[in-house]
Write a structure and sequence with these properties.
The chain is mostly helical and about 170 residues long. The chain is built from eight helices and three strands; from the N terminus they run H-H-H-H-E-H-H-E-E-H-H.
Length: about 170
């Protein structure tokens, strides 16, 4: 995915002639690499999760969100909001998790039209194993990065977060 332009396309001599242009190019290259690496990490974790746990990364994220919710259960609409997906998407996902017997659906006591979901015993068991595997895989992926580099990377991401907040406030 190319966002704006890439140095190989433009030419190094043209880039070096204009520092702002060079800075813009560096930002674009950085964005492309960050997006590419995020996609690669996600794809690899999804592949591992499917192969070893028969669980997609998306299902794993839903199980985590349910587990971390108040009282271990959450309404469908709150779950959709928490994971930034549509209600229709969440209905399909929870349907598959129900079929796999990893979650159970409960009518909300105060309003029987509203449903909440909670993990089943099987869901807790699978999630516990998946979390252990996930931790191992992420440690392997980042094994060549020492603690100082991780702190530096997190500091860098924090600065991007701040910039995005400022940018969003201006819009």
């Amino acid at each position: 995915m190319l966002l704006l332009y890439y140095p190989e396309i433009i030419g190094i001599n043209e880039m070096n002639q204009n520092k702002k242009y060079n800075n813009d190019c560096q930002i674009t290259m950085l964005l492309n690499r960050m997006i590419s690496n995020c996609n690669r990490i996600t794809q690899e974790l999804n592949r591992q999760m499917k192969n070893e746990m028969s669980l997609t990364l998306a299902k794993y994220e839903v199980l985590i969100a349910i587990k971390n919710s108040d009282d271990g259960q959450i309404t469908m609409s709150n779950l959709s909001q928490k994971l930034s997906v549509s209600n229709a998407n969440m209905t399909g996902m929870t349907g598959r998790l129900l079929k796999d017997e990893l979650i159970e659906k409960k009518a909300f006591p105060k309003d029987r039209r509203i449903f909440s979901v909670a993990l089943t015993d099987k869901g807790y068991e699978i999630l516990e194993k998946a979390q252990e595997k996930y931790g191992h895989w992420t440690s392997e992926i980042f094994q060549n990065i020492d603690a100082n580099d991780l702190m530096l990377a997190n500091s860098f991401i924090n600065k991007i977060d701040e910039s995005l907040e400022n940018f969003s406030e201006k819009s």
